[in-house]
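Dear all,

This email documents one entry for the complex benchmark we are building for the journal club exercise. For each entry we list the sequence lines for every component of the assembly. Then comes the predicted three-dimensional structure of the complex as a token string, followed by one or two observations. Please use this as the template for your own entries, and keep the labels exactly as they appear.
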Amino acid sequence: MPFDWLRAGPPLAEWWDLRDLGNAVGGLLGWIDDRGGPSWLPYVVSGLIGIVGILLWSVFSQLFFVWAERRLVARIQVRLGPNRAGPLGLLQPVADALKVLTKEMITPRNADRLLFWASPILVMVPALVVFAVLPFGERMVLADLNVGVLFVIAIGSINTIVVFMAGWSSSNKFSLLGAMRTVAMLISYELVQVLALLAVVVFTNSMRMGAIVGWQDDFNTWIVFVQPLALLAYIFAGAVEINRTPTDIAEAESEIVAGYHTEYGGIRWGMFQLAEYVAGFAIAAIVVTMYLGGWTLWGLEEWVPGWLIFLGKLYGFFFVFIWMRGTLPRLRVDQLMGFAWKYLLPLLLVNVLLAGLEVLIWQENGFAAEAVLPAFAVANWALAVVLVVGWGQVLGHLRPEHRAKRPVLVKEVGAILYEPYPLRPGGSVPEA
Amino acid sequence: MSVGLEHFLVLGAVLFAIGIYLALTKRNAVAVLMGIELMFNAVNVTFVAFSRFVESASPLTGHVFVVFIITVAAAEAAVALALAVLVYRNRETINIDEINLLKW
Amino acid sequence: MDDSGSVVAFWTLAALTVGSALMVVAVRNLVHAVVYLILSFVGVAGIFVLLSADFLAVAQVLIYAGAIPVLIIFAIMLTPRAARDNAETSLGLPALPLVGALLATIISIAVVTDWPEATRGGFEETTSVIGEALLSTYVLPFEIASVLLLAAMLGAIILVRED
């Protein structure tokens, strides 16, 4: 009956059940099969539908989020943001797109023509291809690979070479410098990313994204509750991989003009910006799938369509990225690298070790999940706090050089000083 | 029209031949290294093709071999490029025709 | 593998791989040669997917297409006054018949031999089996490979340190 879906229940396999858009695609493929076509036609059609869907969704989301990001960052910085182009500035992305499309595309004289032309195109490739393994719903995955997690990491590593090519082919010393800094940053945080995702795979025992969401659905828990440290590390590593503040050393506007995309004008620069936003959505989608439960919400997905829940979580998480951009100052490149190698890497290795230990204890003794997972959650959260604070203390990061002790009124000058060393009462300084 | 083991073996052989040609004839040491990496890839293709098509008790041994080859190739590329950079620092050239100090 | 999809995929990927490898030989700019090399590696990753080696395909993209070209380009960048025109040595022309003979030998052996073919078809999931093999049967080469990687890292760092 067509209105069975108003009562709760998992999505039916009928084409009009919009709770899972894959049903509509499945209906279309069944129709094609009934009309008798070649056997490869359903694959091609479903692939094309997925590709077109991802492209359209990512571009239109990006249009909205250009506006949202600028208004939100402006609000955090106590200013207004774009409010001229259309009501509330809502047509600002359209204005930006028109500007980008009509600007002149200058090619430097000594630029390497093939690579200069190819780099803006190639920079979109990793950002878009990653969406192929991310499940928007139960049947809404373009390619549910058995090695989905590793695929995500591999496609992220292609970003490195593309960014380097873009900087190299510009025949501009500062572009090359920006590209080298970016490459150093990206390869350091690739390792952090792998270890953070590995902690999830240790728990779910599978690298398939559908299985990871299924694990979170079966055990009624989000992996963030069991692996908070991994999520924090992955958020940071993800921000680095997509060159967002606080880690946008590649395109730090006030430092190195525009880093590796200085020489690109017009739609070429537009492609770099588009790729940055789409990659941001990709990282948000990975976080939502692997740490935040994907398209499930403890049974709500039987009322609200799973893909709406997924998009809601994705946009909600992207707000965290925008918040980080508005709030945190930019890190120096050596601070960033030191953070990855000295701080995050040992923490994540300990985290993976502990995750493996916990899963081993769980599997060997056959405990019930309801008893064991809350214990793991409490232990892991406590451990995360202890490790973050403790390792920071060990490395000396939490010891500021000049910590204010108490204000001292200096009688002669009439000012309030923070004393770096203890003064005697009366204001006299002890001899050295 | 089907694709069998011979097709993959011929593909591996062609890649290997191109890799050997690069390693034998290029003047730049980095280009020689690119040929060596191509040869490694050809061998990987051959291993995986055998693992897929040939009867065996443990068919995925070929894949394990390829994992080791990829690892060792990466390490060897790093060291070879470090050596090339070091030679450049001392001789200011990377032309293998001119790095012939051991020739009598 | 005789369904039309596999056949089309094989010929496309083989053309991509071999064509890119030939462009590495022929192109006159070293950085372009690296780009064609990356393309060739991605083609080999596609061949791995065709041979149902999913883990190896992704590992190939991760390491060969994502990390080793960065190494090569850094090496090219750190040798600025070296010739970047990808020219051949004087042995260029005599090497062609040698390589051709080698190719003919290998192809004839591959085609003539009667390999004991299996009828099992492709693998479903290779990752878990590879992982178990690496930690049970092949644990000694695994540990030696990790020590080798450590030695290579240290060696590379010590070699190029400016002391």
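Observations: The first strand of chain A starts at residue 407 and ends at 410. Chain A has three domains: 4-37, 103-395, 403-432.
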